[in-house]
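[INFO] parsing input record for HTH cro/C1-type domain-containing protein
[DEBUG] input buffer:
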Amino acid sequence: MSQEFIMKVRVALAKYEKSQKWLAKKINISEVYMSDIMNGNRKPKKQIDSIETVLKELEVIKNK
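[DEBUG] output buffer:
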């Protein structure tokens, strides 16, 4: 996963006051796996779409 995408995720989680643990639960992966993704130790092709969907949902909810 690109560093740009990881930074985008980190910024969104901070903006909406959510944690990596919260995101891991939302996309049904372990906290350890989520940490590996965020540290660039995994290349989670399957989870990228799920992560983007959750972040978009957060944006919609916050903008209502």
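[INFO] The two ends are 31 Å apart (CA to CA).
[INFO] shutting down worker
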